[in-house]
Specification:
The protein is of the alpha+beta class. Helices cover 41% and strands 19% of the residues. Strands 1, 2, 3 and 4 form a four-stranded antiparallel sheet that branches. Helix 1 (5-26) packs antiparallel against helix 2.
Length: 113
């Protein structure tokens, strides 16, 4: 008996999540783990870019910034930006990241462009 297409998609997604979990559990270095979390999250959601922040009190600090849309001489390397060059963001409603962190909720912007 054939499974409906939606079920196969869900099974594939669950299989991907399990594989991601296994890969993440093997990583010992925090910087590499955060990089892997963002990369796999973007891959799973088909996102071309992403930022991972860590909170410290009332501030968000950029930890990992990735953007596949950036041109690079070596296209085999993921496009990473130096996260230390960005100023911390306050956790408040003045930025999308601050809003989400402050409210502890998901914010879905259908077309961020």
């Amino acid at each position: 008996m054939n499974k409906p297409m939606a079920s196969m998609d869900l099974e594939d997604q669950l299989r991907q999540l399990v594989n991601i979990g296994i890969a993440l559990s093997d990583e010992q270095n925090l910087a590499d783990l955060l990089d892997c979390i963002l990369y796999e999250s973007r891959r799973f959601t088909n996102a071309t870019a992403g930022t991972l922040y860590l909170s410290d009190g009332e501030m968000l600090h950029f930890e990992v910034v990735q953007n596949d849309a950036l041109d690079t001489a070596d296209s085999t390397v993921r496009n990473h930006l130096d996260a230390s060059g960005f100023a911390p963001l306050p956790i408040n409603d003045n930025s999308i990241a601050g809003y989400v962190a402050g409210r502890g909720t998901v914010l879905n912007i259908r077309n961020a462009y």
